[in-house]
Write a structure and sequence with these properties.
Largest sheet: 2 strands, antiparallel
Number of helices: 10
Strand content: under 5%
Number of strands: 2
Helix content: 55-70%
Strand order of the largest sheet: 1-2
Number of domains: 1
Order of helices and strands: HHHHEHHHHEHH
């Protein structure tokens, strides 16, 4: 006697959609990973075809305008799409499992555009001529990048960049509710990822006007981002985060919060 097992087309289609979402999340994560590695070379001036101080030169006014617009595009995308109200609207059209991956992918594309279209402003603001001191300052910049990467793993690197969501969706699991934790760096500063970026951007043996513009604008944006992020964290964790904010400094280690 032959038994024929039929497969519900709806179930099969649902499984395929989960696989596609997972592959999409992988692509978005790889885009992020390539972009952040390029960012290290772009800011540090090594290992990439176009850095912050290389490329065809234009007039100072054009360079200033184009560079500010590129950074503004990233800032608007990065901040707007991270807000709860936008996510509630956005997930009416984008499936929730790939919402974070889409955010990561679009942020990566904005940065890729910035790297591509950035106009150099090569006039020197300061330059460290002692080679030993120059190497030490460059090493400090790399320490900043190490702080950025390790900080993401201390919280939840794969959730932060969308992989946990698409993996859980593929496996049919629910995402655990967020829990408030303060591992390692987070016991000394509330925002070690942002601190790492500030160190990486400012610690340079040779500061051009273009690099200074990039470091200044991104630092100002970091403070805006902290304000928006902490407002969301208070909404999520309430008094628990308020107490943490009183006890731990925002960016300067071992300095008590005001």
């Amino acid at each position: 006697m032959t038994q024929i097992q039929s497969i519900n087309p709806e179930i099969s289609g649902h499984r395929i959609s989960k696989i596609i979402a997972f592959l999409y999340g992988i692509v978005a994560y790889l885009a992020f990973f390539v972009t952040i590695l390029y960012a290290m070379g772009f800011v540090g001036g090594f290992g990439v075809p176009k850095s912050i101080d290389t490329g065809p030169e234009t007039s100072p006014a054009e360079a200033l305008l184009v560079n500010l617009l590129l950074m503004l595009l990233f800032a608007v995308q990065h901040s707007l799409m991270a807000r709860k109200r936008f996510k509630e609207w956005w997930t009416q059209y984008v499936p929730k499992p790939v919402e974070r991956s889409t955010y990561v992918l679009l942020a990566s594309l904005c940065l890729m555009l910035l790297f591509w279209q950035w106009r150099p402003m090569p006039a020197i603001v300061w330059q460290i001529r002692n080679p030993d001191v120059a190497v030490a300052v460059a090493a400090v910049s790399l320490v900043g990048w190490v702080i950025v990467f390790t900080s993401t793993f201390l919280i939840n690197h794969f959730e932060l960049f969308g992989l946990q969501q698409v993996t859980a969706n593929l496996a049919g699991r629910d995402i655990p509710a967020p829990q408030f934790r303060t591992p390692v760096y987070y016991k000394f500063v509330r925002h070690p990822i942002y601190l790492g970026f500030i160190i990486a951007f400012w610690a340079t043996p040779e500061m051009s006007f273009g690099h200074l513009l990039f470091a200044t604008v991104t630092t100002l944006y970091i403070f805006v981002g902290i304000f928006l992020e902490e407002r969301d964290l208070i909404g999520l964790f309430g008094d628990q985060y308020r107490r943490y904010r009183k006890q731990v400094s925002m960016l300067i280690p071992w300095r008590r919060s005001a």
